[in-house]
Structure formats: structure tokens, C-alpha cells
Amino acid sequence: MITVIASYPLPAPIAPDEAESIFLSTAPRYRDVPGLIRKYYVLSEDRRSIGGIYLWKSRADADALYTEGWKAFVRQKYAVEPSLAYFDCPVVVDNASHEILSRS
Questions:
Q1: Nearest by Cα to 57 from 36, 41, 43
Q2: Phi-psi region of 47 (alpha: psi -120 to 50; beta: other; left: phi over 0)
Q3: Looking at residue 30, which CATH number applies to its domain?
Q4: Is the pLDDT of residue 77 over 90?
Q5: N or C: which terminus of the chain carries fewer CB neighbours within 10 A?
Q6: First CA to last CA across the chain, in angstroms?
Q7: In this predicted structure, what is the pLDDT of residue 27?
Q8: CA torsion, ordered 50, 41, 27, 25, to nearest 10 deg
Q9: In what order do the strands lie in the sheet with 83-88?
Q10: How far is it, in rounded angstroms, from Cα 98 to Cα 23?
Q11: DSSP 8-state symbol, 42
């Protein structure tokens, strides 16, 4: 599994309600994306940065999303260049489903 953290610095802080509204407007885009296990939308405590934490089945699945088209969408939606950080994710503890997931 692969975890990708996408972050976007904002030109000015936004309120949590505004962030939630923005996130809900894009959330349907991520339903049924091949290989995407889970996506979290995040807002920094100082409200000056937003982003997403994505859990993927594979790097190839992640790369299939983060195309130039996706980056253009982010630039248009948030007026910033997205920053992506990739992490190998060999184990996930999921307390909601009472599962421990591993890549093997």
C-alpha cells in the first residue's frame, strides 16, 4: 500500500465550515477511483493549508490519479500548486472495521 499526502498552502486562512463545503464539493470525484482505499480531507490548525491523505493499493494506482489533469484541477480549484509526498505503507490499523491490513 502507498500513502500520499497532498498539501496546498492557502493565500489566506479559511473557516472550517468553508473548508468542509469545498471538500464536499469535490468528494464525489473520488468515489470508485480504482485502487483508492480511503481519502481524508484535512485542514491545518492555523487554517492556512488544506490537503488530502490518500491510501492506495499501489503506486501505479496513485500515479493514475495524479496526472497533469488532476494537478490542473487543483490549481483551478485552490489557486495553488499541489505538493505530493509518497510513503510506503506496509501496515494499517483500522479501528473502525477492527482490521489490521497489510500488503501481504
A1: 36
A2: left
A3: 3.30.70.100
A4: no
A5: C
A6: 10
A7: 95
A8: -40
A9: 36-43, 49-56, 2-9, 83-88
A10: 27
A11: E
